[in-house]
Predict the structure.
Amino acid sequence: MQKGKTSRGARRHVDFDCADCLAARRCWDAPLEECSGIYARREDLLPKGAVLLRQGEPFGAVHIVVRGCLCLRETMLDGAERIVGYRVRGELVGIEGWARGHCTYTAEAVETTMTCRLSWPGASGKAAGSNALLQRLLAKTAIQLDRSTTPWSGLPAIERVAAFVEDFVRRSRADHATGEQVTLPMTRAQLGSYLGLAEETVVRALAQLRLRKRLDIQGRCVSVTARQAAHGQSDG
Amino acid sequence: MQKGKTSRGARRHVDFDCADCLAARRCWDAPLEECSGIYARREDLLPKGAVLLRQGEPFGAVHIVVRGCLCLRETMLDGAERIVGYRVRGELVGIEGWARGHCTYTAEAVETTMTCRLSWPGASGKAAGSNALLQRLLAKTAIQLDRSTTPWSGLPAIERVAAFVEDFVRRSRADHATGEQVTLPMTRAQLGSYLGLAEETVVRALAQLRLRKRLDIQGRCVSVTARQAAHGQSDG
DNA sequence: CGTAGTATTGACTATCTTCAATGCCAGTGG
DNA sequence: CCACTGGCATTGAAGATAGTCAATACTACG
């Protein structure tokens, strides 16, 4: 994996300034000025099931999801495995590893996923603009922290599932339009693992939600209703 | 609340460099060099029940807990109120507010609590060293994010309570010695609100844990056993 | 067409919540 | 000093919810 420029796929395996990336708006919300000080390297596409980070291995880099979805798995002390989170477009993966020194979870692609590896401040001569990067990383991490305040613990199963789906839809749809279709890339079992529910309970909850017309969901496909779009407005 | 120096209580209501604070080790783990670039202002002691931040109000500042414990409460859309987290010595409060623009939770003292208000980078002429601050804030936020991956959703009530108590003990004891006593400052009901359990379930779980000798707890007082101390080593 | 993974449904059981009552303890006022 | 009050902790009993086990569909893919 040499670093020299290749004539095609110009942005692959080479650090580039995020300000020069056409997809930057998907990652950084607000547009970047030229010479943003944020450098990244587009990584190979992760096919479904591919592992980006493995729990326990030493910290390598912080990644950002450009497209697709990663699930974060953790093996507990007793050997049980649980899904502790999902990461979609624009979300960070591995920042906890930076703070702790090693990966605290395994990150695996739930569907075909594209990521960028962020160039870490201080690593090379590019540290000059690292203040901008640090601020943006902090903002993203803080928002992820805010989101992780599980709004569902203690709620009945139906509410948990509804909250998760609505949140996931909000996070992963491209723009904020109504009438869009969003696909839940994970299985019911994976969804249950994350929510702390049995697979069957998830299924029954989804059936109820469809029945009560709170969610327009068929298989893994969710249609965004006006209600969900409205809630989405309160989101950063 | 004027800013001028007073002859006594020299560190109150005046920004100072954290490197000059005797309690800095409690906040920042690793020692700080002189001119750390991290400035803070010691705030008035919060008596039990006092509110530091109120959900919905515009972002003011990031705070750090020096001593005591804050609980973070959130009023949901349906009006129900839930405790979404606790913050003890060395942990940040309000960083989500910076990212979102407004406080996402109410922060209330569960016991007498001391906090510092961090001087925000770029606000004044002190921004020079803000890189150090940003890095430390990012590290703390990342660790809080890592911790928030609720290791208990889906576990039986007993395991949830055990996990919470052990985690809380680990976070809040002053040094890492065995044989120490730690006080849980919150009521059983508050504990249940956080874990998503009824007050009675918490009581029964604690009774079971005491019976099975997994926790040495009496009332609100927990004694640290060898097992808990051992787990603590894996912590940052 | 067969297989594997996933989704769904039903029946039974374990767990947790709810409701209700009681005990404990500190603070308050007569 | 003592009764009274309010907040918190504890316990029991009944009912609701979610988990488990088992069987059956659905779907993609070779």
